Amino acid sequence: MFARIDHIGVAVEDLDAAIKLYEETFGMALVHRETVTEQGVEAVLLDVGENHVELLAPLGPDTPVGKFLAKKGPGIHHVAYQVTDIDATLEQLKAAGMRLIDQAPRTGIRGSRVAFVNPRSAGSVLTEIVEPAAH
Ligand code: CO
């Protein structure tokens, strides 16, 4: 079902401090920065091999990531798996009885199509599926 891990999402309070850690100390290339209003975050992608780390800073306390930070503090927020056909994958997940946060794909970072699976049916892991934008 899943081709590979697309990215690990990390919730941060201070985006610039986090970028400094990942870019300067960990040596990852920052390849994209975007405010994703629909998800209430300012996000950056850093390359690590063919995969990414996605740093997420909330646009406000009432956003999903803002609430996550208030409850749990900074840290790993979600795991994202890459798929080639997100519509087909969503149907497979529904058929398998999985509870979905997104019944249909929405726009994610860098023009991707994404959907989140409810952590209650995914072993308490917030799970994202990603169909990257065609290059
Ligand atoms: Co993500």
Topology summary:
Layout: E1 4-11, H1 15-25, E2 29-36, E3 41-48, E4 51-58, H2 64-72, E5 75-82, H3 86-95, E6 106-107, E7 113-117, E8 127-131
Parallel strand pairs: 1-4, 5-8
Antiparallel strand pairs: 1-5, 2-3, 3-4, 6-7, 7-8
Cobalt (II) ion (CO) binds at residues 7, 9, 54, 78, 80, 128.
Care to describe what's here?
It is globular and about 45 Å long. The chain has a single domain, classed as 2,3-Dihydroxybiphenyl 1,2-Dioxygenase, domain 1 (Roll), CATH 3.10.180. It has helices spanning 15-25, 64-72, 86-95, and strands spanning 4-11, 29-36, 41-48, 51-58, 75-82, 106-107, 113-117, 127-131. The protein has an eight-stranded mixed beta sheet. With 135 residues, it is of the alpha+beta class. It binds cobalt (II) ion. Cobalt (II) ion is lined by residues 7, 9, 54, 78, 80, 128.
Kindly state the number of beta strands. 8
The CATH topology is given as 2,3-Dihydroxybiphenyl 1,2-Dioxygenase, domain 1
Largest sheet: 8 strands, mixed
**Overall 3D geometry?**
globular
User: Helix- and strand-based class?
Assistant: alpha+beta
Write down the Rg: 14 Å
Integer count of domains: 1
Straight-line N-to-C gap = 22 Å
Summed up, what is this model?
The chain is α+β, with helices and mostly antiparallel strands. It has helices at 15-25, 64-72, 86-95, and strands at residues 4-11, 29-36, 41-48, 51-58, 75-82, 106-107, 113-117, 127-131. The two termini are 22 Å apart.
Any key phrases for this structure?
2,3-Dihydroxybiphenyl 1,2-Dioxygenase, domain 1; 135 residues; alpha+beta; binds cobalt (II) ion; 3 helices; globular
